[in-house]
Amino acid sequence: MTFRDHNMVTFTDDDGNEFQLECNERYYVPCEITWLLKSLGYKKIEIFGAKLGAFSRDDGLSIEDYEMLVVAER
């Protein structure tokens, strides 16, 4: 499994022009983020849950979260 999502997004701007984007997104799990940040020299790494744009250090990460808040310190 690569955690990659290939998709096409079509949207229309305010002037009525239609655009199409070819997307290739990579998703990361907490252990990968932690490993990457540690390899860059970060010492303190915290990962919190986020409820669709509502980022807060008060929410623990759960399998129901679509987004996460990552706070790292060197």
What does this entry look like structurally?
With 74 residues, this protein is mainly beta. The protein has one domain (4-73). Helices cover 14% and strands 54% of the residues. The chain contains 1 helix and 5 strands, in the order E-E-H-E-E-E. A 3-stranded antiparallel sheet has the order 4-3-5. It is elongated and about 45 Å long. It starts with a strand and ends with a strand.
Give a short summary of the structure.
By secondary structure, the chain is mainly beta. The chain contains one helix and five strands. It has one domain.
Please specify the SSE layout and strand pairing.
Blueprint: E1 4-12, E2 18-26, H1 30-39, E3 44-51, E4 54-60, E5 67-73
Antiparallel strand pairs: 1-2, 3-4, 3-5
Nearest-integer average pLDDT:
95
> What amount of the residues lies in strands?
over 45%
- Cα radius of gyration in angstroms: 16 Å
- Which strand order spans the largest sheet, edge to edge or round the barrel? 4-3-5
Overall tally of structural domains: 1
Q: Quick one: biggest sheet?
A: 3 strands, antiparallel
Count every helix, treating DSSP H or I runs of 4 or more residues as helices: 1
| SSE ordering | EEHEEE
From the spread of the alpha carbons, the general shape counts as elongated
| Low-confidence segments | none
- The counted number of beta strands is 5
Q: Which structural class do the helices and strands define?
A: mainly beta
Alpha-carbon distance between the two ends = 31 Å
State the share of residues found in helices, binned by percent.
10-25%
